[in-house]
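Section 5.1 Outputs to date
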Amino acid sequence: MARTSIYLNFSGNTEEAFLFYKSVFGGEFGNDGITRFGDMPTMEGAPPMSEAVQSMILHVEIAITGGLILMGTDAPQELGFTVHQGNNVNINLEPDTKTEAERLFDALSEGGTILQPLQEMFWGAYYGHLQDKFGINWMVNCANEAIS
């Protein structure tokens, strides 16, 4: 079945981030739960991984608002990855009610930065924009039809 997801790369704190997201959205981690680099089969000719890399997250996913799937991985420098956090990823949430919009916005902004407070917007929505404590940008956009 087709699905839409957002994939996030972290510099070693994927597990912390996804435990936080699980606390916000509820539910359980999909597939086999958390898969670590140490769970991968050894590739012929590949150098051995350090214990620190083996314990990092290879893949984790969780269903969030509207059935969207959020996926994540650690991107260890030891394996040639470099993570640049910035404004290149926004996750847009469209909850059914103003109450849920406020709950999500408040929970996600805890320890983060509110870029634009929740407010009525000219395009007919209750909208806010924030960056969570992990540097991920979120937009909460509740259509006015859902508010009334």
